[in-house]
Amino acid sequence: MNQELFTNLPSELIINILSRLPIRTIISCKCVCKSWLNLLDTPEFARSHFSRSVPGLILWQRQRDLDSEHFEGSANGLVCFRKLGQHPETVHICNPITRDYIQLPTPGTIWYSPTTVTYGFGASKASGQHKVVRIYHECIRVPDTHELLGIPKSECWVYTLGTGSWRSIAPGPKLEYNSRSIGAFLNGNLHWLVADSEGFARISCLDLETEVFSTFSAPDLPEMSRFLGGLTVLGDCLCVCDNASDDEIVIWLMKKYGVEKSWTKEFVIRKLPDYAGESYEVVYPIKIFKDGDIMMAWEDFHLFYHSIKNKTTASVDIAALQTAERGWIKNQDPTQEEIRVRPNGSPGKSGLD
Amino acid sequence: MAPKNKNPNGENVVPEVQQKKTQALILKSSDGEEFSISKSAAGLSVAIKNMMEDDCAGGVIPLPLVDGGTLARVITYLNKHAEDGASDEDKRKFDEEFLSGMEVDVLCDVALAGNYLDIRGLFHDVCQRIVNGMKNKSVEWVRKTFRIESDFTAEEEEQIKKEYAWAWEGVDSDAD
């Protein structure tokens, strides 16, 4: 009767049991013995824990210096940040739930402002590999009007987590990427809203498994020069949100993934009086709730909640949410916390090794 | 001897209650104990149901991975959940009492049996019970409860604790 209780249990059963624990207890279990430590660091454990997690939202506070970190996307609970300014292209992947992070090695050439690169972060569908994508299209423009004259040079680099180095891949068609845009990760693919050589909006899509680019239609938007918005994922749909109008925010959804005709002007939301008029900020829909209500971010500054039923929009008090140290919303307990990383973190370091 | 019943024609019949009882199986534990269980209760275990359908058992199903004590508990659970007229509320209450009296080692045995016999509700509840007891407990408590001896050196353990220092804020210091 004095033998270890868990020795009889097969490892998948122990994983099943321990992956139900809150993150703090999981971490203290790493100290119990070596076999538990090994088990808790396996990808199987991370997957099992992740599958029990509820999606959440992460807020972070950007430091007001030149080296601030910018959000570049999240996948499976891991978040990608990139530095701008003095040390551009310093990329971190972190797991905010376990507070583990890694810094990627520097890619071959670093481009300083105003030359810009566009990033994306996601995981391949079949093999589940996490990849950071870095796209560079050198654009020649008319100095005054910024009109695009040509794209003489294109590059695309991929960093697969765990490999330790960047690889060059075929950069796909020559398109005009916006450095402010973040790759929208859906269905194992990354997507960017781009302009073709004629200035029309298109969606550039990279399959993270095959690493092949394709292009498909964007919704029927005004000219790109008059368009103010970005591409995100809302629910299970690609979403384009246009904030160029003085008094309305227009949200388009691609109702059936990959079906170009399924782009639908889903919501038109009246702006709050304080936000009406000419604006230069991009609006990102973040989450659509079961009742159809939407949470949106106004650039990096404000959070809004729009009720579809009442047709009302209210500001969310971010200051009241910022109770945590260094701007991290407290998220130690993935089973209880309401505000968390989207989608939720997996506790194993495995995803980061 | 079962009482002999005759129908109006004077033929022998098996009473209805007894007929239901004949709809039974024998489950045999790893230590050779035999338990009778109704087919409807046994069918709540996906694994036993498959064995019944394959008819490989011939009325006696050997369960070499489940000891008698554990099997008795599992059968109690299955009987309650197969009981006619037991409401969901009754079952919930029963589950709560059924599990609350079990020590961790018993819970582990029942979890193993629940997994092996593929009784999803039981397995889920037992795992959750084990986990609820572990929340916010110290490393020492976990080792003691699960009778695990640490194979870390003091330095190794210190290293992990240092790496995740934040995780130890608010953990019960009391080893019990």
UniProtKB/TrEMBL annotation, chain A:
<dbReference type="InterPro" id="IPR011043">
    <property type="entry name" value="Gal_Oxase/kelch_b-propeller"/>
</dbReference>
<dbReference type="Pfam" id="PF08268">
    <property type="entry name" value="FBA_3"/>
</dbReference>
<protein>
    <submittedName>
        <fullName>F-box protein</fullName>
    </submittedName>
</protein>
<feature type="domain" description="F-box">
    <location>
        <begin position="3"/>
        <end position="53"/>
    </location>
</feature>
<dbReference type="InterPro" id="IPR013187">
    <property type="entry name" value="F-box-assoc_dom_typ3"/>
</dbReference>
<dbReference type="InterPro" id="IPR036047">
    <property type="entry name" value="F-box-like_dom_sf"/>
</dbReference>
<dbReference type="InterPro" id="IPR017451">
    <property type="entry name" value="F-box-assoc_interact_dom"/>
</dbReference>
<dbReference type="InterPro" id="IPR050796">
    <property type="entry name" value="SCF_F-box_component"/>
</dbReference>
<dbReference type="InterPro" id="IPR001810">
    <property type="entry name" value="F-box_dom"/>
</dbReference>
<dbReference type="Pfam" id="PF00646">
    <property type="entry name" value="F-box"/>
</dbReference>
TrEMBL record, chain B:
<dbReference type="InterPro" id="IPR011333">
    <property type="entry name" value="SKP1/BTB/POZ_sf"/>
</dbReference>
<dbReference type="Pfam" id="PF03931">
    <property type="entry name" value="Skp1_POZ"/>
</dbReference>
<dbReference type="InterPro" id="IPR016897">
    <property type="entry name" value="SKP1"/>
</dbReference>
<comment type="function">
    <text>Involved in ubiquitination and subsequent proteasomal degradation of target proteins. Together with CUL1, RBX1 and a F-box protein, it forms a SCF E3 ubiquitin ligase complex. The functional specificity of this complex depends on the type of F-box protein. In the SCF complex, it serves as an adapter that links the F-box protein to CUL1.</text>
</comment>
<dbReference type="InterPro" id="IPR036296">
    <property type="entry name" value="SKP1-like_dim_sf"/>
</dbReference>
<dbReference type="GO" id="GO:0009867">
    <property type="term" value="P:jasmonic acid mediated signaling pathway"/>
</dbReference>
<dbReference type="InterPro" id="IPR016073">
    <property type="entry name" value="Skp1_comp_POZ"/>
</dbReference>
<dbReference type="Pfam" id="PF01466">
    <property type="entry name" value="Skp1"/>
</dbReference>
<dbReference type="InterPro" id="IPR016072">
    <property type="entry name" value="Skp1_comp_dimer"/>
</dbReference>
<dbReference type="GO" id="GO:0006511">
    <property type="term" value="P:ubiquitin-dependent protein catabolic process"/>
</dbReference>
<dbReference type="GO" id="GO:0016567">
    <property type="term" value="P:protein ubiquitination"/>
</dbReference>
<keyword id="KW-0833">Ubl conjugation pathway</keyword>
<feature type="domain" description="SKP1 component POZ">
    <location>
        <begin position="25"/>
        <end position="82"/>
    </location>
</feature>
<comment type="subunit">
    <text>Part of a SCF (SKP1-cullin-F-box) protein ligase complex.</text>
</comment>
<dbReference type="InterPro" id="IPR001232">
    <property type="entry name" value="SKP1-like"/>
</dbReference>
<feature type="domain" description="SKP1 component dimerisation">
    <location>
        <begin position="121"/>
        <end position="167"/>
    </location>
</feature>
<protein>
    <recommendedName>
        <fullName>SKP1-like protein</fullName>
    </recommendedName>
</protein>
<comment type="pathway">
    <text>Protein modification; protein ubiquitination.</text>
</comment>
<comment type="similarity">
    <text>Belongs to the SKP1 family.</text>
</comment>
